[in-house]
Design goal:
The chain is mainly beta and 168 residues long. The chain has 2 domains: 2-77, Glycoprotein, Type 4 Pilin (2-Layer Sandwich), CATH 3.30.700.30; 89-166, RNA polymerase II/Efflux pump adaptor protein, barrel-sandwich hybrid domain (OB fold (Dihydrolipoamide Acetyltransferase, E2P)), CATH 2.40.50.100. It is 7% helix and 59% strand. The protein contains 1 helix and 16 strands. The strands form 3 sheets. An 8-stranded antiparallel barrel has the order 1-2-3-4-5-6-7-8. Strand 4 (26-34) and strand 5 form a beta hairpin.
C-alpha cells in the first residue's frame, strides 16, 4: 500500500509491500516488531536495527522518537489522500465556507461547534464510510457559524456538514 508521509515540512511517498518498503525509489527490507504493552518498537531497516518509540496522536498523526530525536509525522494512505483532494478546493469563493461530505456515510463525531474558531487542519467531523472512519478537516482558519449534522446521522455525498466564516 502507498502512503504519503509528512515530516519536517516535506512529504515523502512510501510504499509498503509485505517485508519491503520503498522510499524515494529505493526498496529495502523492513519490519517493525514490538509489544502491545509498550510504545517502543524494534525497527529493522535494510539490515540495521533501531529502537523506535511510537505514540499515536489520532487522525494519522504520530510522534516518533528515534535515537533521542522526536519527530511529529502525519501518514495518509491513498484513499484518504483522494478524499482530501475531493474536498480541498470546494467552496473557496466569497461568503461563508462550507465543509461538504466527500461521500455518503454516517456521522460518527462532530468536533466543532458554532462560534468555535478553527485553524487549517483542525478536525471538524468524523464520517464513517465503508467501515472506515475519515476525519474531515478545516481547509482554512475561520469561525464555525453552523453545524448541519449530528452524530448518528446518515449523509449523502456533497451534503453540507458545517458552515464557517473564513478568517479575514
Amino acid at each position: 500500500m502507498k502512503y504519503l508521509v509528512a515530516v519536517a515540512g516535506r512529504e515523502v511517498e512510501v510504499e509498503v509491500d509485505g517485508d519491503r518498503v520503498t522510499v524515494a525509489g529505493r526498496t529495502v527490507p523492513a519490519s517493525l516488531e514490538g509489544s502491545p504493552v509498550t510504545h517502543v518498537r524494534q525497527l529493522f531497516l535494510d539490515g540495521r536495527a533501531d529502537a523506535l518509540a511510537v505514540e499515536g496522536q489520532g487522525g494519522g498523526r504520530w510522534a516518533l522518537t528515534l535515537r533521542g530525536e522526536r519527530h511529529e509525522i502525519e501518514v495518509v494512505d491513498e484513499r484518504t489522500r483522494h478524499i482530501r483532494s475531493l474536498t480541498a478546493g470546494a467552496d473557496r469563493g466569497r461568503g461563508p465556507g462550507v465543509l461538504r461530505a466527500p461521500m455518503p456515510g454516517l456521522v460518527v463525531r462532530v468536533q466543532a461547534q458554532p462560534g468555535q474558531a478553527v485553524t487549517a487542519g483542525s478536525g471538524i467531523v468524523v464520517l464513517e464510510a465503508m467501515k472506515m472512519e475519515n476525519e474531515l478537516r478545516a481547509q482554512a482558519a475561520g469561525v464555525v457559524t453552523a453545524v448541519r449534522v449530528a452524530p448518528g446521522e446518515a449523509v449523502e455525498k456533497g451534503q453540507v456538514l458545517v458552515e464557517f466564516d473564513p478568517s479575514p
